[in-house]
Write a structure and sequence with these properties.
Elements: E1 4-10, H1 14-25, E2 30-34, E3 48-49, E4 52-53, E5 58-59, H2 63-81, E6 86-88, E7 91-95, H3 98-108, E8 117-118, H4 126-129, E9 135-139, E10 143-145, H5 147-160, E11 164-166, E12 174-177, E13 180-183, E14 186-193, E15 210-222, E16 230-233, E17 235-239, E18 245-248, H6 262-273, E19 280-293, E20 299-302, E21 309-313, H7 319-336
Parallel strand pairs: 1-2, 1-14, 2-11, 7-16, 14-21
Antiparallel strand pairs: 3-10, 4-5, 6-10, 7-9, 8-9, 12-13, 13-14, 15-18, 15-19, 16-17, 17-18, 20-21
Helix pairs in contact: 1-7, 2-7
Length: 352
């Protein structure tokens, strides 16, 4: 491993992978520090890109900008790493009653929403494996990103290039001054913290309103022909590359660890039993903590007192769609002094 780099990236989940890739693509040298024994949200999340969310069928924030950036960047990474990470999958959701149907019909008449809404989605074998619903609605331009496979492939590449330190970050080893950064024997011009929910323990950025939402999921094998689509009805059913389905997720704002619990295992199973009529077996039960922020917007920017300390955090439940565009914004900010959008700039939370 070299001892001099332009950047050290702390955390090689989705945020760290994408900002690191953009910096390397710009010709910068990057070293990564990541603890493989710590569970990241990227390794557990389904990676759903869903343009229409909520009971009121609202377009996701900046989705018209997010989608083309996501499609472009994930395709680039597939070509670079030689694997498939992006799967174009239609999303079918249930409408529970006449009120839902009316709200959907009204949205469908809106020119801004029309490209994303499908009032007659293809259901394939869905009715044969699930209980009947009042009605079904489809979401166009949805997809799933295999975040675990993507970050693992990128980590393998950086490890083989001897640019990955597989260890838990030790803040005592990180020396910051006007001349640069040192982490043990490694010297760099700047460091970018991409630590997810653990950033609440970061001595430089703990002043930010870091929150966390613990989520638990099941992986199940369904003993019946299943359609190649994502289905939302009480829980998400999302097909995975290995033939299992991702079922989730729970949300807990008060938590003490990121370990799966029996209570949430049973809760997810009971919700799945309300939806699925086909036999199934539970293959795995996993948990992780999503990095969230009180205003539901990512945290991007530079430390107010140290111009060589940056942060990329707070991607929350929509990380698969947010991270590509946010990583471009942050790379442009760092490399080209281009202003960050106010909605994501950490200056919205002044240090006191």
């Amino acid at each position: 491993m070299n001892d001099r780099y332009d950047f050290i990236v702390i955390g090689q989940g989705l945020a760290g992978t994408l900002i690191g890739y953009r910096l390397e693509k710009a010709g910068k040298s990057v070293c990564y520090v990541d603890a493989p024994e710590q569970t990241s949200a990227s390794s557990v999340a389904a990676g759903i890109i869903n343009p229409i969310t909520g009971r009121r069928f609202v377009k996701s924030w900046r989705i018209d900008e997010l989608l083309p950036e996501a499609e472009k960047l994930y395709t680039e990474l597939e070509e670079k790493l030689g694997g498939q990470f992006r799967y174009e999958l239609p999303l079918v959701r249930t409408l529970f009653n006449r009120g839902d149907q009316n709200d959907w019909d009204i949205r469908s008449c809106d020119e801004e929403y029309a490209p994303y809404l499908n009032s007659q989605p293809e259901l394939s074998t869905l009715p044969a494996i699930t209980k009947p619903a009042f009605a079904y609605a489809g979401v166009n331009r949805s997809s799933r990103i295999d975040l675990a496979r993507l970050t693992e492939a990128y980590g393998t590449a950086t490890l083989s290039a001897k640019r990955l330190l597989s260890e838990k970050v030790d803040y005592q080893k990180l020396i910051v001054n006007d001349k640069g950064i040192s982490y043990g024997p490694i010297k760099a011009k700047a460091v970018i913290f991409c630590e997810g929910w653990r950033a609440r323990h970061n001595p430089w950025f703990s002043y930010l309103p870091h929150r966390g939402a613990k989520g638990e999921v099941l992986h199940v094998r369904i003993d019946a022909p299943t359609p190649e689509l994502m289905f939302k009805h009480r829980v998400f059913l999302v097909p995975r590359a290995n033939g299992t389905h991702w079922i989730g997720a729970t949300t807990e704002n008060d938590f003490t660890d990121d370990i799966p619990t029996r209570a949430n295992h049973d809760y997810l199973k009971s919700r799945l039993d309300e939806v699925l009529i086909a036999p199934y077996e539970i293959a795995d039960h996993r948990a992780a903590v999503r990095p969230t922020v009180k205003d539901r917007r990512p945290l991007l920017g530079v430390h107010p007192d140290h111009e060589n300390l940056f942060i990329f955090n707070g991607l929350g439940t929509k990380g698969a769609s947010l991270a590509p565009l946010c990583s471009r914004w942050l790379a442009d900010f760092i490399l080209n002094a281009k202003s960050l959008p106010d909605e994501v700039n950490i200056t919205r939370f002044p240090k006191k």
